[in-house]
From TrEMBL:
PROSITE patterns: QOR_ZETA_CRYSTAL. Pfam families: ADH_N (PF08240), ADH_zinc_N (PF00107). This is NADPH:quinone oxidoreductase family protein. Residues 11-322 form the Enoyl reductase (ER) domain. The lineage of its organism: Bacteria, Pseudomonadati, Pseudomonadota, Betaproteobacteria, Burkholderiales.
C-alpha cells in the first residue's frame, strides 16, 4: 500500500508519500481499499500539531474516507469482502488502504458514489447533531449559518431546510453567497461588505435568528450573538478562523439565550445507538434527495498537498475530495 505519512507534524510540507506494508485486519477490523477521501479542517490542524487529538508518530492523516472491504478480521459480522463502506476514523484516510473498526464502518446503499460518501459523515453528522439534537430546531424557525460556504456550512443549510427552517447563510464573497442560495438558503449576507448585525436586523424584522450555527469563531461571534432572538440557541461548532471568541455572558441573560457546545465525535462515542439512528436518518435523506455533499474539487490522492493549499486559501465551497485511481 501507499500512504501520506506524517513523521513530524510541522505542516503539509513534512508529509511524504511512502510505500508501507499492507496491513492484515485484526479481530473486529476491516481492511478497506480506499476509493476516495475528503479533507476536513482538523486534517490540517493535526499535521500542524494544533489539534486536540495528537496521534503517536508516525501516522497517516485523513479522518474520513470511503471504499471497498478487501478483508475481514475475526469476529466481524454484518460485513463481507466487496461491500462498499464509509468511515470516519480520525486518521488513516490519505492512503490506498486502511484498517477500520467494523463498529465505525457505515454500510453504503447501492448507488451511493464513493466521492459523495467520503464527504458525508463528518459534516452532515455534525450539522444534524447540532441543529436537530442540540438546538431542537423546529419547523418555521430561522437559522443563521456562519461560514455557510464551507463543508459544515453547506451541510447545515441542507439539514436546516430539510427540517423546515428558514435559513440565512453568511459567507465572505458574493460568489459564495450565490452558491448558498443555489443550495436552498432563503437569504444571504456577505459579511465582508455588509455589517452582520444590520443585515440580520433587516432580514428578521428585528427579531433575530432563533438558532446560530457557528463553525468559524473569531471576530464575528459577538456580533452574531448580540443579534440572537429571545430564547435563541448559539451552537459552538468550531473555530475555523483560528480565534476562540470571548463572549459577554450578560448577553445570555438579556436574551434568555443558550450557548450550546457541539462535539459530534464525543456524542458518537458516548451515545452510539443514537448516533447510529441519526446516521440512518441521514442516509434516508440522501436517498430521498434532501441532502447531497457539495464537492468543490476532486483531485488525485497524490495531489493532496495541492488540496491542502486550496483549503488554506479559504477558496473552498463545500469539500475537497482526493481519489485513488
Amino acid at each position: 500500500m501507499n500512504a501520506w505519512l506524517c513523521e513530524n507534524p510541522t505542516g503539509v510540507d513534512a508529509l511524504q508519500w511512502k510505500e508501507l506494508p499492507t496491513p492484515t485486519p485484526g479481530p473486529g477490523q476491516l481492511r478497506v481499499a480506499i476509493q476516495a477521501a475528503s479533507l476536513n479542517f482538523p486534517d490540517l490542524l493535526i499535521i500542524q500539531n494544533k489539534y486536540q487529538m495528537k496521534p503517536p508518530l508516525p501516522f497517516v492523516p485523513g479522518t474520513e474516507f470511503a471504499g471497498i472491504v478487501e478483508a475481514v478480521g475475526d469476529g466481524v459480522t454484518g460485513f463481507k469482502v466487496g461491500d462498499s463502506v464509509a468511515a470516519f476514523t480520525g486518521t488513516g484516510g490519505f492512503a490506498t488502504h486502511a484498517l477500520v473498526p467494523a463498529a465505525l464502518a457505515l454500510p453504503l446503499p447501492a448507488g451511493f458514489p464513493f466521492e459523495d460518501a467520503s464527504a458525508f459523515i463528518c459534516t452532515y453528522a455534525t450539522s444534524h447533531h447540532a441543529l436537530i439534537d442540540r438546538a431542537a430546531l423546529q419547523a418555521g424557525e430561522t437559522v443563521l449559518v456562519l461560514g455557510a460556504a464551507g463543508g459544515v456550512g453547506t451541510a447545515a443549510i441542507q439539514v436546516a431546510k430539510a427540517a423546515g427552517a428558514r435559513v440565512i447563510a453568511a459567507a465572505s464573497t458574493d460568489e459564495k453567497c450565490e452558491k448558498c442560495l443555489a443550495l436552498g438558503a432563503d437569504a444571504t449576507i456577505n459579511y465582508t461588505t455588509t455589517p452582520l448585525r444590520d443585515a440580520l436586523k433587516t432580514l428578521t424584522e428585528g427579531k433575530g435568528p432563533d438558532v446560530i450555527l457557528d463553525p468559524v469563531g473569531g471576530d464575528m461571534a459577538e456580533a452574531a450573538f448580540r443579534s440572537i432572538a429571545w430564547r435563541g440557541r448559539y451552537l459552538v461548532v468550531g473555530f475555523a478562523q483560528g480565534g476562540i471568541p470571548s463572549l459577554p455572558l450578560n448577553l445570555t441573560l438579556l436574551k434568555g439565550a443558550s450557548l450550546v457546545g457541539v462535539f459530534w465525535g464525543e456524542f458518537a462515542k458516548r451515545e452510539p445507538q443514537r448516533n447510529a439512528a441519526m446516521m440512518g436518518a441521514l442516509a434516508q435523506w440522501y436517498a430521498a434527495g434532501k441532502i447531497k455533499p457539495v464537492i468543490d474539487q476532486v483531485l488525485p490522492m497524490q495531489d493532496l498537498p495541492k488540496a491542502f493549499a486550496r483549503m488554506s486559501s479559504r477558496q473552498v465551497v463545500g469539500k475537497l475530495v482526493v481519489v485513488n485511481s
